[in-house]
Amino acid sequence: MIQGSVRKRPAQAVSRTEPLVNSIQIRIYAMKTGKELKPGTVIRLENDPWLVQKAEFTKSGRNSAIMKTKLKNLLTGYKTEIVYSADDKLDDVILDRKEATLSFISGDTYTFMDTTDYTMYELNAEDIESVLPFVEEGMTDVCEAVFFEDRLVSVELPTTIVRQVDYTEGSARGDTSGKVMKPAKLKNGTELSVADFIEIGDMIEIDTREGGSYKGRAK
Fold it and tell me: Which GO terms describe its cellular component (predicted)?
């Protein structure tokens, strides 16, 4: 089992278990601030576990940093959007994490396989909205599957992945510095900017954090 990175908790904070309305127990570990929220995080609101499906950090001026979130109640399936201040304090729910790979895609259903016991788990496209632009048939990335009460709730891609460029215009300038950028498309339709010297069929490295960005030609 892969363990996620653990923040040093405040001295006064303790791990605790608290009951939910349907008798499910959730474990709370210290606190998270609004600016630390990211897709895949599960927080407790009004004694229910809520999955962060989308998190967008915005800082427009002094003391005005906010995190816009899209949340899903893991007990009822209800969805909502909440805006938090960067320093808001929230209960962080302990989650289990395992290694998994994509097995196949059928419509909007994505099936992942536990690499240890080969159990299959399904997620809808909306459950992996934050990483969906870089999920494609045939990918071999070992992902981090996030579980709550033995149920897969989200998947996190490695920080760096390699994908093939399906289409891009030819280089008009002959630039090899990597500073001149142009649009390109991956085989699943995702568009991103790449260096001008990149050609159709090239394998490129992509940083999956904060929406994904081109890093360079894969070695």
Answer: cytosol
